[in-house]
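Posted in: Protein Modeling Q&A

I'm a second-year student putting together a small comparison for a lab meeting, and my supervisor asked me to include a predicted structure for Pyridoxal 5'-phosphate synthase subunit PdxT. I've never done this before, so apologies if this is the wrong subforum. The sequence is pasted below exactly as I got it from our records. If anyone can share the structure token output, I'd also love a short note on what stands out.
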Amino acid sequence: MIIGVLALQGDTREHLHAVADLDAIGRPVRRPEELDSVDALIIPGGESTTMSKLAVEFGLLEPLQKRIAAGMPAYGSCAGMIMLATTILDGRADQVPFGGIDMTVRRNAFGRQVDSFEGNVDISGIDGGSFHAVFIRAPWVEEVSDSVEVLGRVNDGPSAGRIVAVRQQHLLATAFHPELTGDLRVHRYFVEMVREAGKTTEG
Ligand SMILES: NC(=O)CC[C@H](N)C(=O)O
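Accepted answer (user: helix_wrangler)
Welcome! Here is the predicted structure, written out as tokens:
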């Protein structure tokens, strides 16, 4: 099982480390040929407008949209969550997502004065207590369709109740950055999703 990490821009390295810590094989993905060689993809945090622009420049936009639509498991954190959304609010006019999760996300939703904050999030399907979640100019999910499973909301504080973790079949997204806190539970959950998807394809 090879898990690619999109390496156009953002905190690719931290995700590669998380994957390696779980004894899975990680590989940076910059070109369409590299995308062909992976079973799943992590889309890191960073800047979604830049990521979108570079995806077009590197000829990755359409191949990515196609593979995601065809069932390749993908996990997006923060900017990666924005890239997996079907609809973006407060985006740049020419910003194109990869799509896949039937949801509307709002960029930089937690307010511009507070660039980043930390909060607690419980994620359904992941045991071991709340996540200590780090949000950096993070989006939140404003709306989801019936096909999207809401996995987590902010527990407390002024943004309590905001949706920050979702899953739609083979696609997973969090508004926060588990790759920065050394808590590997979200990555482990994703690796498990990839294994399950592999079994279905083989079986
Ligand atoms: N930490 C992040 O990934 C920030 C996301 C960024 N604000 C964006 O719109 O892409």
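A couple of things worth pointing out for your meeting: The pocket of glutamine is lined by residues 45-48, 78-79, 82, 107-108, 136-137 (CB under 6 Å). The first helix runs from residue 12 to 21.
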